[in-house]
Amino acid sequence: MINFNVPPFTGKEMEYMRQAVENQKICGDGAFTKKCSEWIESRTGTKKCLLTTSCTHATELAALLTGVGPGDEVIMPSFNFVSAADAFVLRGAVPVFVDIRPDTMNIDEKLIEDAITEKTKGIVPVHYAGVGCEMDEIMDIAKRHGLFVVEDAAQGILAEYKGRALGTIGDFGCFSFHETKNVSSGEGGALLLAHEEDIENAEIFREKGTDRSKYYRGQVDKYRWQNYGSSYLPSELNAAYLYAQLELADQITAARLAVWEQYREELSCLQEAGIVELPYVPEHCKQNGHMFYVKTKDMAERTALIDFLKKNGILAVFHYVPLHSAPAGLKYGRFHGEDRYTTKESERLLRLPLYYGLTRDQVSEICGRVKEFYGR
Ligand SMILES: *Cc1c(COP(=O)(O)O)cnc(C)c1O
Cα–Cα 20 to 30 A to 209, which of 155, 221, 304, 345? Predict the structure, then answer.
């Protein structure tokens, strides 16, 4: 049986967690949190990284920092996980969904400007599968209309757009370390801040509205309640686990990219025959092997392929019921323009198993079964 995902494990996690216990500091913002933040800062070039309990929480923090409020509008794709929509709906804002590009499954940058109203405050591009959105165009639109940009880079660690790390191009970037992501602490995330002037407020929102971060650094002699906030810092045990994975992140990424390449090679004959479509990565994007998918003819064919693979011990999955057609999307958001691709393409997309440790033989077996399904 081949699982869809096996959480990454590199070997040093237990040792680092033991060290955290021996340090007698297991709450947040200890030595391992610092190591993780510094690693992310040095590898991405972001001004400041704050570890969080999830990508959803990183996005909530970003939403707090943008100052959006009731009635404000935020543009995002409907083909997305719920986090970005949740974070802004919690502030009373309205997610305005626009269509995706069928090639990358990312927000169609050409449709954003038409969705802007006098209530629009920001744009939340999602780098699907660790493949960058067209950030030059998006940043240009944001600049001309005075909008903020929060990058949902949940799947984007160590991926790049035109040589820049995903998550560092907008005003804020959000990473996920959920167990389904390339590097993981089970649950976890990070907020990347592009602007020096956001750092102090971000630290306060993250620490229950207090200036405890300053107090820890010896910059104030007591910490006090400064603003509203919440608790977004992960425990040191999570950070210790994560640090073991960050240390080997290049190795994990390389292994995932090798699996991705093998899928592409072995399945390209199906694409050439016009039977399925495979992921497209623009020349100027460096992806990170987060995901490999095939797009079938339609939903019925996808269901049949999932069943066929399952009968043969292979677990493949689909995801993202478009947000605008989900109950909360109908209640809190709206779709601007025509849904040409969001629903249609989401119904065709099937993700194949991809995890650190998946072997060449397993990938061949999976590709063999996919080809067998199509009588090849
Ligand atoms: C995984 C994921 C999230 C949520 O991450 P959590 O860490 O589980 O909160 C958000 N957006 C996208 C695109 C994701 O893939």
Answer: 155
